[in-house]
């Protein structure tokens, strides 16, 4: 198949190069590579966010990234990029008219909006449209995150135009059904993890980052400081006097003093009296992240709602038990009482109690870590996720007669 992936706000090149990258970048890069490896021709279309970006880049055989001009050539959040979706859709439509794909796969609501418009530019048979949502505003609202009426309305509209919808959890499929979308139109395909890179094998970077304080349990979290959750972790750390916390988040290490979010978190830690047990690592190159994860004893999340769950899966693949709120994609990844502990709410007392239970039973914690690595390797490899994505694509096309099973009766084999 000729597959066009549209990721207006998430350029896959940083993840492809092993640089710090958002979950969307990781997902698009991994799927593009593995679908190309399976014999498909994949083109990724992203907004040009830097003058230094070439018009076209390769990510290996049969996989390319094309940067389309749309708005200022600098990075913007998804919501800000939406202001330039019209220009992006026009540029995308021109490219699709030149090289129409079989499948047009949009990642996120702004990309979905562009695809609805650009698909009309394709001559002949319209390409099948697949829409991936890493999160839905309706689900975020249930977790206590802000309501975004315009986004929720657009999500419903682009979902209605799609031939197939891909979400990361059964919870999200429920939300789509609540919006009136038929369940049969929705495929649940989880986020993936590179288990060759993220694994239990190899050393750690404990000495490189911050030396472990003798006898202390090391917790680690990969989180967006601006999105919240760090406050919960700091309050939990206050209750865990024999623990320390490393947070991988925010701007580069050299920029941390200039970050408003980093300053806010550091001030909270100082006011709580735990600043000597908190390390803000900033973003970490993906080649270094597995070693940093392996330096910890447990992965913790204070977020009320994990948007993609990639960090949780990477920690599991490195053999860490997980403590997080059981919602959305985390419910798909973590087996409560087997690979970690799922919390009903992301509250400091509940998180601290769960970590304390793990540290009190090191054999159980080790068993959780082994089971977590096994589950990541058996269920969440990008090879498997790409195969499930390809299956979602094929649902868009009529079943060929040769593929139909025989009915019971005369002539059945």
Automatic annotation (TrEMBL):
Keyword Transferase assigned: yes
Domain Glycosyl transferase family: residue ranges: 229-372
A molecular function GO annotation: hexosyltransferase activity
Domain Glycosyltransferase subfamily 4-like N-terminal: 26-196
InterPro entries assigned: Glyco_trans_1, Glyco_trans_4-like_N, Glycosyltransferase_grp1
Superkingdom as given in the UniProt entry: Bacteria
Keywords: Glycosyltransferase, Transferase
UniProt-listed GO biological process terms: carbohydrate derivative biosynthetic process
Pfam annotation, one family: Glyco_transf_4
Name of this protein: Glycosyltransferase involved in cell wall biosynthesis
Organism of derivation: Streptomonospora salina
């Amino acid at each position: 198949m000729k597959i066009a992936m549209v990721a207006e706000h998430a350029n896959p090149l940083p993840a492809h190069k092993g640089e710090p990258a958002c979950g969307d970048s990781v997902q698009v890069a991994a799927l593009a590579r593995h679908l190309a490896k399976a014999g498909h021709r994949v083109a990724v279309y992203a907004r040009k966010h830097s003058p230094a970006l070439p018009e076209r880049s390769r990510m290996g055989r049969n996989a390319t990234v094309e940067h389309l001009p749309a708005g200022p050539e600098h990075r913007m959040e998804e919501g800000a990029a939406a202001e330039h979706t019209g220009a992006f859709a026009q540029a995308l439509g021109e490219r699709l008219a030149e090289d129409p794909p079989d499948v047009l796969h949009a990642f996120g609501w702004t990309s979905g909006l562009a695809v609805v418009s650009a698909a009309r530019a394709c001559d002949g048979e319209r390409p099948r449209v697949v829409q991936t949502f890493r999160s839905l505003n309706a689900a975020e609202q249930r977790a206590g995150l802000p309501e975004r009426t315009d986004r929720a309305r657009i999500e419903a509209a682009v979902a209605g135009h799609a031939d197939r919808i891909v979400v990361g959890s059964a919870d999200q499929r429920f939300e789509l059904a609540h919006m009136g979308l038929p369940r049969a139109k929705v495929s649940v395909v989880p986020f993936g993890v590179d288990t060759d890179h993220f694994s239990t094998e190899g050393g750690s970077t404990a000495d490189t980052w911050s030396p472990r304080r003798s006898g202390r349990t090391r917790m680690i979290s990969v989180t967006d400081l601006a999105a919240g959750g760090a406050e919960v972790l700091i309050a939990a750390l206050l209750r865990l006097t024999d623990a320390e916390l490393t947070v991988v988040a925010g701007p580069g290490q050299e920029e941390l003093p200039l970050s408003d979010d980093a300053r806010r978190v550091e001030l909270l830690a100082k006011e709580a009296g735990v600043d000597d047990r908190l390390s803000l690592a900033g973003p970490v190159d993906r080649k270094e992240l597995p070693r940093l994860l392996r330096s910890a004893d447990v992965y913790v999340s204070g977020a009320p709602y994990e948007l993609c769950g990639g960090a949780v899966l990477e920690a599991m693949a490195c053999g860490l038990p997980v403590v997080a709120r059981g919602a959305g994609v985390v419910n798909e990844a973590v087996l409560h009482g087997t690979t970690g502990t799922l919390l009903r709410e992301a509250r400091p007392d509940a998180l601290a109690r769960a970590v304390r239970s793990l540290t009190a039973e090191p054999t159980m914690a080790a068993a959780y870590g082994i089971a977590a690595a096994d589950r990541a390797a058996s269920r969440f490899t990008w090879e498997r996720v790409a195969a499930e994505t390809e299956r979602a694509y094929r649902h868009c096309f009529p079943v060929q007669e040769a593929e139909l099973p025989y009915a019971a009766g005369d002539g059945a084999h």
